[in-house]
């Protein structure tokens, strides 16, 4: 029996500061902005992945506090994402900063904070995740979103 071909799992964090600004990273591979996050590694939980990816891509240590939603790359078009042959299941968590400082990496060229009305040009699939994150920030009773 051949090895199954399955979607990759990506884990992202939605982090707001005291000014209600969203933490975002500018991707080195396509120059567009995104939530900190990335692919789940073997041997870690999705929550561990989200924490690791935020540290690697943005320099911040975070505590994950809540599941905000589960998203599928089947629901958006690949326009500027460089790895178009992959399919993803994205898990979005709310988190808050517990340490670290803004720092870029080989995967990021900038780390920034943005208001809901001033979101920069986004890489594919991040607009719906950001919309859900801000909706959940406004309504704590909102249930996790899923596709």
Map the helices and strands:
Blueprint lengths: L7 E8 L6 E6 L5 E2 L2 E3 L6 H13 L1 E13 L15 E13 L7 E7 L11 H13 L6 E2 L1
Parallel strand pairs: 1-6, 5-8
Antiparallel strand pairs: 1-4, 2-3, 2-7, 5-6
Describe the structure.
By secondary structure, the chain is an alpha/beta fold. It has a single domain (8-146), classed as Alpha-Beta Complex (Nucleoside Triphosphate Pyrophosphohydrolase). It has helices at residues 46-58, 126-138; strands at 8-15, 22-27, 33-34, 37-39, 60-72, 88-100, 108-114, 145-146. It has a 5-stranded mixed β-sheet with strand order 4-1-6-5-8, sandwiched between helices. Strands 3-2-7 form a 3-stranded antiparallel β-sheet, with no helix packed on it.
How many separate helices? 2
CATH topology: Nucleoside Triphosphate Pyrophosphohydrolase
Helix and strand element order: EEEEHEEEHE
The order of strands across the largest sheet is 4-1-6-5-8
Shape: globular
* % residues in beta strands: 35-45%
The stretches of 5 or more residues where confidence is low (pLDDT under 50) are none
Helix vs. strand class: alpha/beta
| Total individual domains | 1
Largest sheet: 5 strands, mixed
Tally of strands: 8
CATH superfamily: Nucleoside Triphosphate Pyrophosphohydrolase
What's the overall average pLDDT, rounded?
A: 95
What is the name of the CATH architecture?
A: Alpha-Beta Complex
Ends distance: 30 Å
The CATH class designation is Alpha Beta
Radius of gyration: 15 Å
The proportion of residues forming helix, as a percent range, comes to: 10-25%
């Amino acid at each position: 029996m051949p090895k199954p071909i399955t979607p990759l799992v990506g884990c992202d964090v939605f982090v707001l500061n005291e000014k209600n600004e969203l933490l975002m990273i500018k991707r080195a591979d396509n120059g567009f902005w995104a939530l900190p996050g990335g692919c789940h590694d073997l041997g870690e939980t999705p929550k561990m992945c989200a924490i690791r990816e935020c540290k690697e891509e943005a320099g911040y240590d975070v505590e994950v506090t809540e599941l905000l939603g589960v998203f599928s790359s089947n629901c958006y078009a690949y326009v500027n994402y460089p790895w178009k042959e992959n399919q993803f299941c994205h898990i979005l968590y709310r988190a808050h900063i517990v340490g670290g400082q803004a720092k870029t990496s080989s995967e990021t060229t900038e780390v920034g904070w943005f208001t809901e009305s001033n979101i920069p040009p986004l890489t594919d699939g991040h607009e719906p995740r950001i919309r859900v994150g801000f909706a959940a920030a406004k309504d704590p009773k909102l249930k996790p979103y899923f596709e």
